[in-house]
Inverse folding.
C-alpha cells in the first residue's frame, strides 16, 4: 500500500492534499454568471472563490441547510429516509454525532485552509488508543470472544515476532546478506522494538502492555509487575492482530483533527460566507445548455417552478443522483456518469447516560475494533471527556452489511447495536438513553456514502467527467482521488473554477 500511495503522490493523485491554497483567479469575471448545483463543500468552495473573483453566483440546494454530506445530528435534527423512516434526534443539548465525515487528516491542507480562514476551531480526534478493546468472535483459542486491550495484543504480537526474527538473525539465518556489523545493529533494533531480553532474545512482556497489579503510593511500592503476555498461539488464533494495521493507511493517523462542536461547523463556516447566494429547499429538475449558456429548471418547496439562466454551471450533485436528472450532455458523458458505483454506508449514534468507557474502563477516545457483522467498530467520543453523558458511534457499516441493517426500522437498528456493544461493555444496555441512525444510501439527495471507482472506470470514465461537457463542469468528492474526504470535494472545486476562469479569460 505504501508504494502505491507513494506512486500516486508522485503523480499528484495521492491521498494528501495536492494543493494547500485555492487558485488565484485574476483578471476579473467579465460579467459572467455561474449557477452552482449543490451547497455541499464543493459547491460552497466554488461559490466562495468565484464570488470573490467577481462572478455573479447563484447556488441551488435541495436541502433546507448547506453542507451536503458534512452533517451533524444534534437535538432537533430531522431526517426521513427513502424507506419512510422519520427520525428526530433527541440527544441532550450539546451532544451530537457526526454521521457524515468525522475526522480530518493533518495533510488535508485544503480543508485546513478553510477551517483556519473561517475561524472553525479544531481539537484532537483520537484515532487510535491502546487502552481500547479488540473483540473478535470468529477467532479461536483462549482470547476468542473476549474484550482485549489493543495495547496488549500490539505488545505481544510485536514482541513474539521480534523474538523469532532476532533468534533467526543471531544465527545468520536471514535470507538478506548482512555484514557482522549490520547484523549487530539489526539485532539491537529488533531487541528494542520487541522489548526482548538482551541475553536470550526472548519476549517476556513489557510494562508498555500494562501491569497485573498497578504500583501505588505508600511504603510498599506494590508488585508493579508487567501483566503476563498471552501465549503466542492464542495471539495468532484470536486474529486480533489484524487490527494492528488499522491506522497505517496514509489517510489515517493515530491522532487526527475534528471541529469543536461537530463537523457541521465546517459547513457553517462556509455558509457564513456564501449563505446569501444559496437558494435552499429547491430541487433541480432539468439541466440544459447551448452555445451561449445554460439553463437549470428548478422547483422550490412550495411547488413553484422556475428557470435559472447562467453562462456556466458547476454541478456538485452526486453522480448517483445526477444520473436521474434530465441533463443535456453528450452520450459519452452520460455513459461515463453511469460507470461509478456508490457505497452503502450506515452509522448510529448512541447517547449514554454515563461515560462508563471512561469511568470503568479508562478509555478516552479511539475505536473498539470487532469482527461482529455490521458493527465494524464502536467509536468513543474524543470530546467532552469526564462529562456525565456522551454519544458513541455504535456501528459504522459498509457494503452488504450496511444494506442489511438499513432494511431494519430505526428501533431495530438500535437494538442490534446495543446487543453487540453489550458483548464488549457490560454497562452498555443499562446506560443507553436514545439513538439516531443514518443510512446514506437511503438519503434522497445522496443515494450512497461516496463514489467507488473501479480501476477500469477510473481509467476510462473519470477523465471524461473531469473535463466537463460544454458549459457544464462537475465537482465533488467523486471528482477526485480523495474519495469520501472533504478535501476531495474542496480540491475538485478548485480545479474546476480554475478551468472555468481560464476559459473566461481566454474568450475575453
Amino acid at each position: 500500500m505504501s508504494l502505491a500511495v507513494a506512486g500516486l503522490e508522485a503523480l499528484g493523485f495521492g491521498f494528501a492534499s495536492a494543493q494547500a491554497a485555492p487558485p488565484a483567479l485574476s483578471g476579473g469575471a467579465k460579467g459572467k454568471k455561474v449557477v452552482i448545483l449543490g451547497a455541499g463543500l464543493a459547491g460552497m468552495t466554488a461559490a466562495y472563490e468565484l464570488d470573490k473573483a467577481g462572478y455573479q453566483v447563484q447556488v441551488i440546494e435541495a436541502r433546507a441547510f448547506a453542507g451536503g454530506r458534512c452533517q451533524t445530528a444534534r437535538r432537533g435534527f430531522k431526517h426521513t429516509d427513502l424507506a419512510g423512516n422519520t427520525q428526530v434526534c433527541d440527544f441532550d443539548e450539546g451532544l451530537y454525532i457526526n454521521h457524515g465525515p468525522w475526522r480530518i487528516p493533518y495533510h488535508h491542507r485544503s480543508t485546513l485552509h478553510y477551517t483556519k480562514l473561517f475561524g472553525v476551531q479544531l481539537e484532537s480526534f483520537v484515532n487510535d488508543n491502546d487502552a481500547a478493546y479488540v473483540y473478535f468472535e470468529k477467532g479461536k483459542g483462549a482470547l476468542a470472544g473476549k474484550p482485549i486491550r489493543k495495547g496488549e495484543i500490539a505488545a505481544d504480537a510485536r514482541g513474539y515476532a521480534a523474538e523469532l526474527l532476532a533468534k533467526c538473525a543471531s544465527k545468520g539465518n536471514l535470507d538478506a546478506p548482512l555484514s557482522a556489523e549490520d547484523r549487530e545493529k539489526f539485532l539491537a533494533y529488533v531487541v528494542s522494538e520487541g522489548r526482548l531480553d538482551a541475553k536470550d532474545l526472548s519476549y517476556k512482556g513489557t510494562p508498555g502492555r500494562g501491569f497485573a497489579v498497578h504500583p501505588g503510593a505508600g511504603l510498599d511500592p506494590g508488585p508493579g509487575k508487567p501483566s503476563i503476555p498471552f501465549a503466542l498461539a492464542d495471539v495468532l488464533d484470536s486474529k486480533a492482530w489484524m487490527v494492528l494495521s488499522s491506522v497505517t493507511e496514509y489517510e489515517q493517523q493515530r491522532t487526527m483533527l475534528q471541529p469543536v462542536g461537530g463537523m457541521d461547523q465546517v459547513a457553517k463556516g462556509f455558509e457564513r460566507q456564501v449563505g446569501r447566494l444559496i437558494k435552499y429547499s429547491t430541487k433541480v429538475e432539468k439541466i440544459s445548455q447551448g452555445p451561449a449558456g445554460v439553463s437549470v429548471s428548478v422547483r422550490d418547496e412550495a411547488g413553484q417552478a422556475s428557470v435559472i439562466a447562467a453562462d456556466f454551471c458547476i454541478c456538485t450533485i452526486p453522480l448517483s443522483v445526477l444520473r436521474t436528472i434530465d441533463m443535456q450532455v453528450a452520450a459519452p458523458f452520460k455513459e461515463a456518469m453511469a460507470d461509478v458505483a456508490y457505497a452503502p454506508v450506515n452509522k448510529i449514534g448512541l447517547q449514554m447516560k454515563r461515560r462508563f468507557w471512561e469511568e470503568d474502563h479508562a478509555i478516552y477516545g479511539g475505536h473498539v475494533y470487532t469482527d461482529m457483522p455490521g458493527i465494524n467498530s464502536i467509536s468513543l467520543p474524543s470530546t467532552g471527556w469526564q462529562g456525565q453523558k456522551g454519544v458513541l458511534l455504535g456501528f459504522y457499516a459498509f457494503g452488504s452489511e450496511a444494506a442489511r441493517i438499513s432494511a431494519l426500522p430505526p428501533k431495530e437498528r438500535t437494538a442490534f447495536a446495543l446487543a453487540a456493544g453489550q458483548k464488549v461493555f457490560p454497562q452498555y444496555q443499562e446506560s443507553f438513553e436514545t439513538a439516531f441512525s443514518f443510512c446514506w444510501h437511503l438519503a434522497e439527495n445522496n443515494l450512497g456514502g461516496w463514489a467507488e471507482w473501479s480501476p477500469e472506470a477510473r481509467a476510462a470514465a473519470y477523465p471524461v467527467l473531469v473535463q466537463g461537457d460544454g458549459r457544464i463542469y462537475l465537482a465533488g468528492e467523486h471528482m477526485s482521488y480523495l474519495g469520501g474526504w472533504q478535501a476531495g470535494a474542496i480540491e475538485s472545486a478548485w480545479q474546476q473554477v480554475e478551468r472555468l476562469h481560464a476559459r473566461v479569460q481566454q474568450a475575453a
Remarks:
- The CA atoms of residues 153 and 175 lie 28 Å apart.
- The two ends are 46 Å apart (CA to CA).
- The chain has three domains: 26-64+280-340+451-507, 73-128+252-263+344-442, 150-245.
